[in-house]
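Key result, reporting period 2: structure in, sequence out.
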């Protein structure tokens, strides 16, 4: 249809990068694209920390679950909820409400996706690093985040050194509902599981015999970072 849609539909998570740096002009354009993203009520409650210190990169790679590309990517950005500047402007601001935490998380996701799409449009690649929340408190201390500011996720960016296969997504008729929520259709999921089983078995790296249902059941059937509530509360967020 057009180059924007082509870029979106060709998205792949890139975890292997060349040693080539990202030009300053490109990085500026990527960050400005993020800043231009939609913001709820123009609150602008996101901060981005560009991590260039090699020792901090090494520590973040460890905190994220020993993901080496955090250390090796040309750029690593950390996206944070940030109500600190709003509170500094006026202490009447009440960052502790859960709705404001949701706004911060939603706005950060929108901003980050703008950054990634801009990077991909320039021939670069990247991957989100939610694993930073494995050690949220340690990451927070490393980056010296103030109260009312909390780490959400990171993003690796660089020149791709791989071209992974496109990962199949759930079909639109599963995700898109009209007028009301549509009943669950087991056959639709079964059909998608067959596609994912073939994808996992045939991809060029990390081959496995599994389906989407099996993967998400494993992911969602246990505790999921139970320390996060305490972390957010300790930062003055998500209390009410």
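The corresponding designed sequence is given below.
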């Amino acid at each position: 249809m057009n180059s924007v849609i082509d870029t979106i539909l060709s998205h792949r998570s890139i975890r292997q990068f060349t040693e080539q740096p990202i030009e300053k002009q490109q990085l500026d354009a990527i960050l400005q694209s993020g800043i231009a993203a939609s913001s709820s009520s123009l609150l602008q409650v996101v901060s981005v920390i560009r991590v260039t210190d090699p020792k901090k990169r090494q520590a973040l790679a460890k905190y994220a679950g020993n993901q080496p590309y955090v250390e090796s990517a040309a750029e690593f950005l950390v996206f944070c909820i940030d109500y600190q500047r709003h509170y500094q402007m006026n202490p009447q601001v009440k960052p502790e409400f859960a709705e404001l935490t949701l706004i911060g998380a939603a706005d950060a996701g929108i901003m980050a996706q703008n950054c990634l799409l801009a990077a991909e449009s320039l021939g670069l690649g990247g991957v989100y690093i939610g694993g930073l929340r494995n050690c949220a408190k340690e990451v927070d201390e490393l980056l010296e985040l103030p109260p009312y500011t909390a780490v959400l996720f990171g993003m690796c960016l660089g020149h791709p050194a791989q071209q992974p296969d496109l990962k199949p997504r759930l079909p639109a008729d599963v995700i898109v509902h009209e007028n009301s929520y549509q009943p669950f259709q087991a056959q639709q999921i079964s059909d998608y599981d067959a596609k994912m089983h073939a994808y996992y078995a045939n991809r060029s790296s990390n081959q496995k015999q599994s389906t989407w249902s099996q993967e998400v059941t494993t992911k969602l059937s246990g505790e999921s970072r139970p320390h996060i509530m305490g972390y957010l509360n300790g930062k003055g967020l998500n209390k009410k």
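Residues 193 and 211 are 5 Å apart (CA to CA). Residues 98-121 form the longest helix (24 residues). This case is discussed further under Risks and Mitigation.
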